Amino acid sequence: MPTAFSSDRVEFIAHREADGWIEAVAADMAKILTTDIAEHGRARMLLSGGTTPAPVYQALAELDVLWDRVEVSLADERWLSPQDRDSNAHLVRESFLKRAEGAHFDPLVRIGKPLPECVYTANLQAQYSLPPSVVALGMGNDGHTCSLFPGSRDLPRALESTLPYAALDATGCPGSNQWPLRITLTPHGLRACRQRLLLLRGKQKLEVLQHALDSNDVQQYPILAAIDQPGPRLRVHWAD
To answer: N or C of the chain: less Cβ packing under 10 Å?
Structure first.
C-alpha cells in the first residue's frame, strides 16, 4: 500500500490486490450508471482502451445494470477500423459489449469516412446525447490520458478546443506507438463527464501521477486535463 502519495486534488483509493481492484472499480461504475438511469431514464459512459481496464469491463458487464438503457462510446480511438484488433472499439466489444446485452455502442471511427468527418460526427453525437455519467481513463508512463500525448504538435490545439473531441497527430511521441493519428476527448469533453475515474496499476504510474501534480504543467503531463476540472474530483483507483 502506498504511503507517500497525497493530494487534495484527487480522490485516491488504494486497493490491496488486483481482484479487489477489479471488483471495486466495476462496482463503482455500476453504481454511477444505475443512479443516472434512476434519475434520467438512461446513462452514457465513455471507455478507454488498453490492457489495464479490460478485466474491469468484463466484471462490469456481469453486474446488475439495465444495459439496454446505457449508451457506450470511447474516450479516444486510434485511426483504425473499429473491426481492427488493435482498435479500442474492438477491445470494448470483446471485453464488455459481448456480455452487456442490450448496451448501445457508438464507435468514434466510421468505416469509409475521413478523419475530420469522424471527429465532426463524434462532436455531433456528444451534443445530442446525455452528458456522460462516467468516463474510465487510463494514464501512460509519459503522463498522457486519452490520446493527449505530451509533445504532440496538436496538443495545444486540443487542450484549447471548445468541442468534446479533436483529431490529434502524435507522430514522434513514443506512447502512440505505430498509431499516431487519433481521435481524443479534449478537456472540454472531460469537463462534461459527471464522474471521472482513473484506473491505475503499479508504483511507476503512481509516481508519474505525483510528478504531474507537483509540476502543474499540462503540456508535459496531460493527465492534469482530467484533474483540473470543476465538479467532483478525479477518482483514482490504484493497485500495485
So the answer is: N
Whether the predicted pLDDT of 2 surpasses 60: no
- What is the Cα–Cα distance from 149 to 222, expressed in whole angstroms? 7
What value, to the nearest 5°, has the Cα angle with vertex 228 and ends 223 and 231?
125
* CB-count exposure of residue 58 (10 Å: 0-12, 13-18, 19+): middle
CA-to-CA distance for 237 and 200, rounded, in angstroms? 6
Q: Cα 48–134–180 angle (5° rounding)?
A: 25
Helices assigned H by DSSP within the chain: 18-40, 54-61, 88-92, 115-127, 155-160, 187-191, 203-215, 224-227
User: Phi and psi for 155 in degrees, rounded to 5?
Assistant: -60, -50
72, 104 contact by CB (below 8 A): yes
